[in-house]
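Task 17 of the worksheet. Students: predict the tertiary structure of the chain below and write it out as structure tokens. Keep your answer in the requested format; marks are given for formatting as well as content.
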Amino acid sequence: MLNRSSFPNLNFDKILQDAKQFSLPESDSYIQSYPEFLKYFERIKGGDINEHDLIIASHFVYGWMPTILRLDLNKKTQVLKYLNAVKSGRLLDEEELNILKVSINNSMVGLSKLLHFINPENYAIWDSKVYRYATSYKSDFGITNVSLYLEYLERIKAIAANENYRKIHELVSKNFDYEIYPTRAIEIVMFKASERK
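Model answer:
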């Protein structure tokens, strides 16, 4: 377990302060593509995620990233089992996340995006801007650490559970024409605040 100093800026007061400055540009393909990615997984709610879905979704997630995807399907059966567990609402443990991470470019960033689109209620996006905001680090050292990602999810849940969380959600959600979960609201505040700096 990590100590509280791992994420000095990932607390309710800091997120609320930055939510008050939150705004989106009128045209942003990153923001516009987000609900389309969610719809992809909503269409397969009745069935299981299969190899086709894994390949397509992994590639569209990497459209948001400056790196090329290297998808390792050697543990395809296990990977699909875990992704379908995420889809059904199960929270994966560190060992399971590590198996997924290795299969998807060995990247916690890419994996976090895929997990978020499969289950946006339980999994938050984790990228270099969010990481630097939350940690105050100048580099991305440690961003691939699965245990840090799990701690990040716990911190987001704690902020969302705050009795005044609704203030943050209202400030952020008014910028979107679709419903967003706290995982997205908190993450996008950090992402945009990091861009402003």
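Marker's comment: The chain is about 60% helix and 0% strand. The chain has a mean pLDDT of 92.
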